[in-house]
Design brief:
The chain is of the alpha/beta class. The chain contains eleven helices and twelve strands. It has a domain of about 220 residues: NAD(P)-binding Rossmann-like Domain (Rossmann fold), CATH 3.40.50. The C terminus is likely disordered.
């Protein structure tokens, strides 16, 4: 079997490419000409250059493929990227799906996000059927992914064999950007988190998310959505867990919502508008923090056989990866074995 993987230079896409190769697939990766190829190093995969916004490039890349794993997305909360977020996440998705249909691929696995699934006020985990309200679509990224998912569902109703997967907050090696979840780890390791917000998220090993993509192709039902997640943690719980794994102290001060809102407003005004840099904190992120983003992945576990690896192990591998690549200094320890720090790998 040959698969086209879009977004393979990214965090989830790179993990999907490795998962498929490990199970005997031939893999073609679609990457933008200027993309960082770190996550493809050492992989026996074919490289196709192109942008999902360019339909001719997508049409050429999909030729000869049995399956398409459409993972590419612009995962950004930066208000300056509003147009690009829409063009990549909505327009690019439509390009990939329609080119896959024209090429006659047997199945598409589309990577959406848990952000297209509604949340509960009582903080109980939400399943795939939880209604989504406009209040949940708090930023351009979530709105674009919702619109793209609707296009996938529309084409599924029209006969395209497409399975939708909705990852929660993956952690592990390969988070080159890093993602917003990865930045929580990096800021914690840098001792840049004096306080925490009253929020929560669902953490999952990125390797399990990658396996979930392959299993969705093998076992999923066309037109269905599957949450790829694992463990629900309040942010304070996650930081305490990181403290236990690294030996660093967890912040004890809970930031009130108004303070976070003010910090984000200032960040957008000064960094984004005046300095024209990516803001350290955005209003979209702060609005999202008002919810505990807890999800129920039991459907994917039951129907796909989604693995549920310990999130502690994924966090340890993520911390080690960030430290080795100089994103953050080495903490007193890494891992549940509390091993001594390796000074040879410490950044200069």
């Amino acid at each position: 079997m040959r698969a086209l993987v879009t977004g393979a230079t990214g965090f989830i896409g790179g993990a999907v490419a490795r998962e498929l190769l490990a199970h005997g697939w031939e893999v073609r990766c679609l990457a933008r000409p200027a993309a960082d190829l770190t996550n493809l190093e050492g992989l026996d995969a074919e490289l196709a250059r192109g942008d999902v916004r360019e339909r001719p490039a997508v049409a050429a890349a999909v030729q000869g493929c049995d399956a398409v794993f459409h993972v590419a997305a612009l995962y950004s909360f930066d208000p300056r990227q509003r147009r690009a977020i829409h063009d990549v996440n909505v327009g690019g998705t439509l390009n990939v799906l329609e080119c896959a249909r024209a090429a006659g691929v047997c199945r598409v696995v589309y990577t959406s996000t848990s952000g297209t699934i509604g949340l509960r006020h009582d903080r109980r985990p939400a399943g795939e059927g939880e209604p989504l309200t406009p209040a949940h679509l708090v930023n351009d990224y979530k709105r674009s992914k919702y619109q793209a998912e609707q296009q996938a569902l529309r084409l599924a109703r029209g006969g395209l064999d497409v399975v939708i997967v909705n990852p929660t907050a993956p952690v592990g090696p390969g988070d080159v950007k890093p993602t917003p979840t990865g930045m929580v780890l990096v800021r914690f390791l840098r001792r840049q988190m004096p306080a925490y917000a009253d929020t929560g998220l669902n953490i999952v090993d990125v390797a399990d998310v990658a396996a979930g993509h392959r299993l969705a192709f093998e076992q999923g039902r066309s037109g269905e959505r599957y949450i790829l997640g694992n463990r629900n943690l309040a942010l304070a719980e996650l930081l305490r867990l990181l403290a236990g794994l690294t030996g660093l102290p967890a912040p004890r001060l809970k930031s009130p919502y108004w303070m976070s809102w003010l910090a984000a407003a200032l960040s957008e005004a000064v960094q984004a508008r005046l300095l024209r840099r990516a803001p350290a904190l955005t209003l979209g992120e702060v609005r999202m923090s008002r919810w505990h983003m807890f999800y129920d992945a039991s459907k994917a576990v039951r129907e796909l056989g989604l693995p549920q690896s310990p999130v502690e192990d994924a966090l340890c591998r993520a911390v080690e990866w960030f430290v080795q690549r100089g994103y953050a200094p080495r903490p007193p320890r890494v891992g549940r074995q509390m091993r001594a720090p390796d000074k040879t790998n410490a950044p200069a």
